[in-house]
Specification:
It is built from twelve helices and 15 strands. It has about 400 residues and is α+β, with helices and mostly antiparallel strands. The strands form three sheets. Strands 2, 3, 4, 7, 9, 10, 13 and 15 form an eight-stranded antiparallel sheet that branches. Strands 1-8-14-11-12 form a five-stranded mixed sheet, with no helix packed on it. It has a two-stranded antiparallel sheet with strand order 5-6.
């Protein structure tokens, strides 16, 4: 993993940005054709994919489950082994050997933890929406319209949405599960991967068996909202709609003897869901300073882009991963947050071929406006010149 950019704690200027990378492989692969068949452009939404968790594979089993819907119609009814062979050939063709080796080692590491760690609250490891979420959030998701989403949300700054999401009892159970994970790590002296390159405390919940539950959280709850509010980075009708296909789920902890604050950075995600679990704390506010592409990540912040946000237990904040942000010092108590980075391999592949991101990057938008203004001024000047010549 690498950290790009410098660390700067200045509050009122635009400091250098750190690109925060998670521990799992989320970049995806480019999907193309195989010798005999091609993947379908659109997924078969009615098809129920097989489960590949019981197999020792070079790639995350969830990847095969997600990819299966894109198989040619003639293969969908084939045996699991036939479908696996087809998908594996495609992935091997486009995935470097080093990447496969790293992914395999991480799966072995994860399986070792899951085989030895005994969950404290097993009900957290499967999605039980009515027990997890507040009724207003569930109703908005059920209605699945922009109006229903906006009815439960605040948008304190463009592209930043806050809303109540988790029931207090769920937050309490997850906090106790995190404490149990910490105790197990201490008792067994197990060395675990931390959430990313900037947080030294917390745990990757996917590594402890919550991958399936968190994938459902992304697929059934974050995707519908993102499709409405972040279509430029996650919605591609030509590939079947929302392209969010992988995630990185973790908890971070701040307070005495933990991380105190978090430097100015962007996330390794297309969309980030950040939910405060508690507990009692002071400080820890998030500060946002505008959305930027890689080219403009260290440009100045405009006044309208600045926002400070105070955490409330059970309340979520949803934003683009490229929205520059950081966390101020937690001065008292202990703050724990659940974070879900949602990733799109399609967006990452397509943006390699783009130079202008004015649909979402604040600085690209400003540069486009300047070019338009200069063009209009040039046309006006030329018309005035011709008018002057015709009257002389």
């Amino acid at each position: 993993m690498s950290v790009d950019g410098a660390f700067d704690r200045r509050k009122d200027q635009s400091p250098a940005i750190t690109a925060v990378n998670g521990n799992i492989n989320g970049n995806g692969v480019t999907l193309s054709s195989a010798p005999t068949f091609c993947l379908s452009l659109n997924p078969n939404k009615e098809h129920k994919p097989d489960n590949y968790d019981d197999l020792a594979l070079e790639y995350d089993p969830m990847l095969f489950t997600c990819l299966e819907r894109y198989l040619p119609p003639s293969l969908l009814s084939s045996s699991r082994d036939s479908k696996l062979h087809f998908m594996r050939d495609i992935l091997l063709k486009y995935s470097p050997e080093g990447e496969r080796i790293r992914a395999q080692k991480h799966r072995e590491y994860r399986q070792k933890i899951i085989s030895n760690y005994q969950p404290l609250h097993k009900e957290l490891y499967s999605m039980h929406a009515t027990n997890f979420f507040v009724p207003s959030f569930l109703k908005a998701i059920h209605d699945n319209t922009e109006e229903s989403f906006r009815s439960i949300m605040s948008e304190p700054a463009p592209g930043i949405f806050t809303f109540d999401i988790l029931q207090p009892q769920f937050c309490d159970l997850l906090l106790k599960e995190v404490e149990n994970i910490e105790k197990w790590v201490c008792d067994t002296k197990c060395k675990i991967m931390r959430p990313n390159t900037m947080n030294n405390y917390g745990a990757v919940l996917d590594d402890f068996g919550m991958e399936t539950m968190l994938h459902k959280l992304m697929e059934d709850f974050v995707r519908p909202i993102s499709k409405v509010f972040f279509p430029e980075v996650v919605f591609y009708p030509e590939v079947g709609g929302s392209s969010l296909i992988s995630h990185h789920g973790f908890v971070v902890q701040y307070g005495i003897h933990k991380d105190i604050d978090l430097g100015f950075h962007v996330d390794d995600a297309e969309v980030t869901l950040n939910v405060c679990l508690g507990q009692e704390f002071s400080g820890g506010e998030l500060f946002f300073r505008g959305v930027r592409c890689e080219k403009h990540v260290n440009t100045e912040t405009q006044a309208e882009e600045s926002l400070d946000y105070s955490h409330v237990p059970g309340r979520a904040i949803l934003h683009r991963g490229r929205h520059r942000h950081g966390a101020r010092a937690t001065t008292q108590g202990r703050r724990v947050n659940l974070i879900l980075w949602c990733r799109s391999a399609v967006f990452r592949e397509l943006k390699k071929y783009q130079t202008d991101f004015s649909s979402w990057c604040g600085e690209c938008q400003r540069e486009k406006k300047v070019r338009q203004q200069l063009s209009i001024s040039a046309v006006k000047e030329e018309l005035l010149k011709k008018e002057g010549e015709s009257t002389s």
